[in-house]
Amino acid sequence: MKSFYISDLRPGDDLVNELFLLQDVASRTTKNGRPFLLFSARDKTGTISAVFWDVPEHISSWVRSGEVVLLTGRANNYKDSLQISTTDLIQNTTSQMAELLPSSQRPQAEMIAELRQTIESLSEPWQRLVSYILLDKTFLTQYANAPAARQMHHAYIGGVLEHTLSMKTIADFLASHYPYVNRDLLIAGTLLHDMGKTVEYDVAGSFNFTEDGRLVGHIVRAIIMIEKAAQELGDIPPENVQQLVHLVASHHGKLEWGSPTEPKTLEALLLHQVDLLDSRVQGFLEHAQTDVDENGWTVKPSPMFRNEIKRPFPAE
Amino acid sequence: MKSFYISDLRPGDDLVNELFLLQDVASRTTKNGRPFLLFSARDKTGTISAVFWDVPEHISSWVRSGEVVLLTGRANNYKDSLQISTTDLIQNTTSQMAELLPSSQRPQAEMIAELRQTIESLSEPWQRLVSYILLDKTFLTQYANAPAARQMHHAYIGGVLEHTLSMKTIADFLASHYPYVNRDLLIAGTLLHDMGKTVEYDVAGSFNFTEDGRLVGHIVRAIIMIEKAAQELGDIPPENVQQLVHLVASHHGKLEWGSPTEPKTLEALLLHQVDLLDSRVQGFLEHAQTDVDENGWTVKPSPMFRNEIKRPFPAE
Amino acid sequence: MKSFYISDLRPGDDLVNELFLLQDVASRTTKNGRPFLLFSARDKTGTISAVFWDVPEHISSWVRSGEVVLLTGRANNYKDSLQISTTDLIQNTTSQMAELLPSSQRPQAEMIAELRQTIESLSEPWQRLVSYILLDKTFLTQYANAPAARQMHHAYIGGVLEHTLSMKTIADFLASHYPYVNRDLLIAGTLLHDMGKTVEYDVAGSFNFTEDGRLVGHIVRAIIMIEKAAQELGDIPPENVQQLVHLVASHHGKLEWGSPTEPKTLEALLLHQVDLLDSRVQGFLEHAQTDVDENGWTVKPSPMFRNEIKRPFPAE
Amino acid sequence: MKSFYISDLRPGDDLVNELFLLQDVASRTTKNGRPFLLFSARDKTGTISAVFWDVPEHISSWVRSGEVVLLTGRANNYKDSLQISTTDLIQNTTSQMAELLPSSQRPQAEMIAELRQTIESLSEPWQRLVSYILLDKTFLTQYANAPAARQMHHAYIGGVLEHTLSMKTIADFLASHYPYVNRDLLIAGTLLHDMGKTVEYDVAGSFNFTEDGRLVGHIVRAIIMIEKAAQELGDIPPENVQQLVHLVASHHGKLEWGSPTEPKTLEALLLHQVDLLDSRVQGFLEHAQTDVDENGWTVKPSPMFRNEIKRPFPAE
Amino acid sequence: MKSFYISDLRPGDDLVNELFLLQDVASRTTKNGRPFLLFSARDKTGTISAVFWDVPEHISSWVRSGEVVLLTGRANNYKDSLQISTTDLIQNTTSQMAELLPSSQRPQAEMIAELRQTIESLSEPWQRLVSYILLDKTFLTQYANAPAARQMHHAYIGGVLEHTLSMKTIADFLASHYPYVNRDLLIAGTLLHDMGKTVEYDVAGSFNFTEDGRLVGHIVRAIIMIEKAAQELGDIPPENVQQLVHLVASHHGKLEWGSPTEPKTLEALLLHQVDLLDSRVQGFLEHAQTDVDENGWTVKPSPMFRNEIKRPFPAE
Amino acid sequence: MKSFYISDLRPGDDLVNELFLLQDVASRTTKNGRPFLLFSARDKTGTISAVFWDVPEHISSWVRSGEVVLLTGRANNYKDSLQISTTDLIQNTTSQMAELLPSSQRPQAEMIAELRQTIESLSEPWQRLVSYILLDKTFLTQYANAPAARQMHHAYIGGVLEHTLSMKTIADFLASHYPYVNRDLLIAGTLLHDMGKTVEYDVAGSFNFTEDGRLVGHIVRAIIMIEKAAQELGDIPPENVQQLVHLVASHHGKLEWGSPTEPKTLEALLLHQVDLLDSRVQGFLEHAQTDVDENGWTVKPSPMFRNEIKRPFPAE
Fold first, then answer.
1. How far apart are CA C104 and CA F79, in angstroms?
2. Separation CA F118–CA F99 (nearest Å)
3. Minimal Cα–Cα distance from A201 to chain B, Å?
4. Mean of per-residue pLDDT scores for chain B
5. Residue F44: pLDDT over 60
6. Which end of chain E is more exposed for a tag (fewer CB within 10 A), N or C?
7. Is D228 in the A-facing interface, judged by CB distances under 8 Å?
8. Residue predicted with more confidence, C39 or F2
9. Does the beta carbon of C256 lie under 8 angstroms from any beta carbon of chain F?
10. What is the C-alpha separation between D218 and D244, in angstroms, rounded?
């Protein structure tokens, strides 16, 4: 679909109606009063800075961060980096985000099928409640695209779903490994615990926090969604809702990590431990893909672990 | 109404159908197999331990913590303390909690009047939303009776309302002292921020945490109540609800103090600071009423401040 | 074997050559100069205080904490508690510790069989190294009896092995769930990580710390044992030893939790996470067996979680 | 008075005897041995780097950070920034600091009048003690010019006085809102608590710490000033001095925030809370004036709150 | 002088005009209205509780904590402990505190001689300043009696002086071991750093904090004393005073340990390190004198180190 | 030996077979496909960046970080900094590291002599054990060259030995100053405590961590070396080894500072305190040599103390 990806751009490349996502859009004026636009163009392979001199009125009227565009221009060297000198921008609405932002390596359809199968395995009232929330068509799309984080781990399209399904598999195993575990409650909590992230990050805007992410946060937002669904369904026993809310509320494990309450039931404890385990392992594997030295140690310390870590797989 | 208060009991006092609240009820059996009941009897002046030998079936069937009773028995010395040897218990439902538990010194009617007046001072949609929640007759009773804490500060019937109104007066002052403050939002947030405490503590049971207090907590519960009210009213702008939820969510000020998000708007910052100020001052004044030495220093360190503090008022 | 267990003792019971473990032995003299011995007698059901007046020389010469004895005496009430008035003590060496101290509920033979099977599943050089250390006959006995902790979790005979095998099952699952995991290294590290606890706690003395536990600690002791074994075997590649030492050294996960280094390889990270998970779940389940109130909440906060927790299984 | 302000400078502007404050003055030599002077020129609108080649002896002899000068030179572009090529510097002593450094927006005369009025409202001996210290003519000038901080809040000329008066108004309100407050002590403490900042920051040198600010600090310095004044006045009761010293010593509220003792009296607690409130609110409002995105969120996290915050007032 | 010491008292001992220090004095009344006095009698060997029934008016008028008395009465067993039944108390003013409170094992005269010698070794102006403060006759007595702490280390009469002299010897050694150390400044700071403790603890009242200790603290008090002395002497260079104040202010090393500023000069760093070293070693040696088990480990964890420690000397 | 040192290089200088250490070696290719090598050349006076275009195969085959070379090329200005344009590199193996890396100012021979003398002063079995480890010829060379840290303090060749000997002198003094100190144990522990640093840092590679430093760390490595030596010697009493291991294990003093156990014996406490003292003082003196302002304060805060500090010696 795209002719050029940012990671392959070379000085002198000419771009014609090339698909990009706009970010960090800023209007500026030179000291002599000549107006120009600075922005970042993004696709799934990276980000590049761009400039557009003397933007015509019919473009400046709609241009802003988060827009998808067809860009015409040329790649030049500017201060030791590549920059795109832009000559035209056309608004575009039909593109697939997967070309523009990094995505999970698991196919989305496969993940959604696994999700549906898992929901079907739940007994009532869990199945009714979870499917009411997650299988709503509009919401499912958002849910299947949400990133799990801005950085650190699963910070890409589909990250929430990939992380959720990995946790689900582990949770299922532990529900049979340990005694007394309410498997339906644990799996329901696992599937719903991060769904608030659908409104926490602005997928089209660098995975930045949204207004709701800043003011409310994904934990409280998910709880509100559960309570609303239970109210609309009408027949979910209050104790079940309360238990489920507890799992979501406490899944970060500690107050200082953002949970308004700490795990006090066996399922809440398991959900927290599995979340911790999966995000740590994924954070490790993702950081291990950054630059390593000749002995396989990452050059930079992992922001999650504060140490340099050793890559567990051979050089590519 | 009551003939004896616990703080005045003497060995040998005979109690006949005296009003008490039961707490810490436990069934026990001696090594020889004789059954007896241990419990605490409570009124607003204190708590005393009690024993009831060979409890008849028609009493043991209903007796439990939180029941209000008319007790017949006698105060005896037992191991250096007073204990009531109980001979009869009659279930009672009409008593006033104010006789049985410590209460705010401000008359409840006066506080409710001040609350109504404050709500009337709010512009729309705040007035509609806040009155819909707080002036609901059933809820208002709970709200006006809730303690603000289990210990530390305002740990008595009416404590939430007394604390809320004190904060409201300060918040009103600061809304005019500082620029840019949205007074209606700040006052609405002040009135609602602790309402979740109506379900957090078991008023009849030593102010212990309830199931909901443990699993959900007063912050998240209040948010759920606001969202539900907004949904039922139908016409409250979502931005207003979001702002208000932010105030409630962040009023503890820091994640490690139990807030799932930290204050990010001016009104949220003010609400947190006023809550901190009022609870600290009240915690200081309450601890200053405990035993002091001859120089006016409390004998024990304040659990809130970790230090002994100096009483600011003369000895009684 | 035993006629009386401490949990069943009643005032007036006469004990004749009853098997106990001595603890907290202290020689005292009354103000009038009469000598007596104070000690605790322990069996798997609990601990009881005991006194022995005018101990004859042939007994006082060997009596000390950690001795197993046949005790003759009588159970009396003393200051509201039971106490054994002792009249004779006979040194005993053949008793089974399982009668005297709490034990894992898993049969030891079954656990050892599972351990052997796991070691056999390892590829070389891991299998040679691990079996050289763990399957040494003398050491295996200590290892199979060691408690995993003094309190908190798995604080009973066989606790280390039970905990290790539970972790092993989870580790095996995760080795196939996540990519790039060196399963042999992870399982070897799992089996060896807590073996230093064989010398950290004094099994016969209330699970107290030993001299080595205080001065060296189980992490460093295990590392010394691995290095010594590798030196004696002579042909274990140094990189393998280094990797394994890293797993043991870092399994507490953080410096402040006692690890001299933090996990920097994928297997070290997994070992730490699985250790954390299994000890937290077990600590939860053990605390849930303490007293609960009528709603199933533990009366005391868990020392591990700082909160009261909800029992996940029905009342007994 | 000034013809050019730094915020308005353009490349090519010629400056003739323009008033600036010198900062960061450093003598350098090129690899070829040609001497030059690097420095920053500052006025109330900002800071600009400057260079002066081949400085004549009669200038190099006195030039140093903190001097006020009349500068002649030209603004040039150098490495993407503006730099002043200086050709002459004349020492100047009569300028008003208000042209050279950022100042409070409240007129100084108005603030001093409010200060005098407040002091007059105090009863004795507080009035005598406070006026002896603050109304000393020399000291009052320093006090009215001192910044409250190097950054974070009230970091401008007059910041201490503005902050102090805002706190005074709130303290006065709280003295009547809460019972048992000694209003005179609280107001006296409020007026004096930050006076040590007159010697903590070098007003003419980027608000950097002075030798005394580094070695002694503003809290201890203020206490020394109070003790010295009390000694000179001779008749202030020692208990009053001790109480006042306690307020100053404890106003940061916690040891880790630099107070050598923590608040143990009601007035000390109130002073700390009001200081916290006013500095937080002012820190919020100041950070809200930095760059915000299109939704009104600051681009950078507040150094005081660690989060991005939402601007409470409309865009300029 | 004394006929009985508390550590040797036996039931039945009759005391006639025996010297004690009164502590924890409290007037009580039985339920029947009979008045009595409860108090602790203290001498250098320990503390014992005492009761005095029907205290005559001429005694109750002056009796209070901190009084030294000649006591007449009898030692009885009461609830498993010894208690003195008192029949007379005579006020006494001439006794030596060394009989009544634990003291340093170094003779006071020897320590004062060493102090004088050290002061004489200082160059000017340090010698003049330090001797003016410490060799003042009244102050020297207080200084030579002050305890260094309430518990933890050197918590006995003369503790400050003993600790100071030990630090002085180490500081002297380090002043020659490391380069650039101003020995006079370091020794002067060492001698003065804890002198504020003369007013921080109430030597006659259980080493409790005094009003000044609570409100001002020994660090700030010592600084005030230095500033006052410098002002009275008139000719001490301000830089010297400032340096010395910095040493005293920063000697706890960190803000959270109560220092209002942290060490920023070489001498301040050394003073802090030597203080830390000497108090830790002394705290270790003192705790090692508490009960140990058969392997020489203290039974209780050290409050300073949080661990049980190993006694470095043989059993007595 | 060398003709040019990096600190003296000027643009245009021609280097012929000049001795350097290679670091940060990286192979790169221009966009046009021309290969070049980027690296840092280091000598004891500093580091300079270098470029080598079109590296011939016989050089690229061996070139890597840590190699010592004879370099031919020319110093040029490149982007405001000096850079060496390299034309030839010859591998070199005989050079002295002291020309290439910063070294202790104490002559190595002198330090080794002092070390030998100290070991001779130890009684048995300490002397035998310590000399067996440290006086091994191969190891002694590594030990005498090891840096004590990567930054912060003693971060230069010979730093471990210099730091160790300074600590030894202080420890010797304290062993006589305090009672009950086992001087031989303390000195043995002092000499061995940091010997693991011989394998923790890569002396030839910027003092970076080695594989062993990252996975095992210097504390555990030193313990393994002690245990191995004791095993090889065969006749060192186990208690002595255990005591010594405790000193090494606990010398960082706290778990969060990387010690797997905390000091529990008098000698372990002393070793920790002396290590803390000497590293703090040295860290202070080293930072004091960085840039200072006109009042002698360092321009940057010390990474060890977080504050700017005052230089204790006059300007050079």
1. 70
2. 29
3. 15
4. 91
5. yes
6. C
7. no
8. C39
9. yes
10. 15
Question: Which residue's entry shows tokens 């909690």?
Answer: B97
pLDDT attached to residue C316: 52
Q: Is D85 on the interface with B (CB under 8 A)?
A: no
Could you check whether the bond before residue F125 is cis, i.e. omega within 30 degrees of 0?
Answer: yes
The Cα–Cα gap between E60 and E52 comes to 10
Q: What is the DSSP letter of C180?
A: T
Asked if pLDDT for residue D245 goes beyond 70, the answer is yes
Q: Are strands B46-53 and E201-202 parallel, antiparallel or unpaired?
A: unpaired
Per-residue pLDDT tens for C45-72?
Answer: 888 999 999 899 889 888 888 788 999 9
pLDDT score of F297: 92
- Residues in chain E with CB shorter than 8 Å from the CB of C214 are 297, 307-308, 310
Angle, helices A183-192 vs A159-177, to 10°: value is: 170
Q: In angstroms, what separates the C-alpha of C293 from chain B's closest C-alpha?
A: 10
> For chains D and E, what is the number of CB pairs under 8 angstroms?
82
- Using a 10 angstrom Cβ sphere, with 0-12 exposed, 13-18 middle and 19 or more buried, the burial of residue D303 is exposed
Residue C50 pairs with which residues in a beta bridge?
Answer: C39, C84
Q: How far apart are CA A174 and CA C280, in angstroms?
A: 13
Q: How far is the alpha carbon of F1 from chain C, nearest alpha carbon, in Å? A: 40
Per the structure block, which two tokens stand in for A196?
A: 């608030």
Instruction: Give the Cα separation of C104 and C82 in Å (integer).
Output: 28
Helix (H, G, I), strand (E, B) or coil at B31: coil
Query: Exposed, middle or buried, A242 (CB in 10 Å: 0-12/13-18/19+)?
Result: middle
State both tokens at F59. Answer: 């050089």
Does the pLDDT at position A259 exceed 60?
yes
Angle (nearest 5°) at CA F67 between F62 and F72 = 85
Q: Which pLDDT score is estimated for C202?
A: 77
User: CA nearest F311: which of F279, F288, F282, F286?
Assistant: F288
Residue A286 in contact with partner chain C when CB distance is under 8 A: no
Mean predicted confidence (pLDDT) in E107-131: 97
Q: E179-201 burial, b if ≥16 CB within 10 A, otherwise e?
A: eebbbbbbbbbbbbbbbbbbbbb
Straight-line distance from the first to the last Cα atom of chain C, in angstroms, rounded to the nearest whole number: 27
CB E157 within 8 A of CB E145: yes
Q: What does the alpha-carbon distance between residue A159 and residue F162 come to, in Å, rounded to a whole number?
A: 53
DSSP 8-state symbol, C41: E
Q: Which of residues 19-48 of E touch B (CB under 8 A)?
A: 31
Best CA proximity match to C245, nearest among B114, E284, F223: F223
Q: How confident is the model at residue A310, as a pLDDT?
A: 96
Distances (CA, A) of E126 to A203, D6, E244, E245: 69, 50, 10, 13
In angstroms, what CA-CA distances link F47 with C191, F64, F82? 47, 16, 10
8 Å CB contact between C233 and F187: no
CA-only gyration radius of chain A, Å: 23
Measure the CA–CA gap between D26 and D63, rounded to whole angstroms: 10
Mean pLDDT along residues B94-115 = 86
Interface test with B, best of C79, C293, C306 (most B CBs within 10 A): C293
- How far F178 CA lies from chain E's nearest CA (Å)? 8
Q: What is the per-residue DSSP string for B280-297? A: HHHHHHHHTTS-B-TTSB
Please tell me whether residue F115 adopts helix, strand or coil conformation: helix
Chain E residues in contact with F267 by the CB 8 A cut-off are: 312
Residue E262, chain D, CB below 8 Å: the answer is: no
Mutate to test the interface with A, among B215, B227, B243, B245 (most CBs of A within 10 A): B215
* Residue among E301, F263, B104, A217 nearest C208 (CA): E301
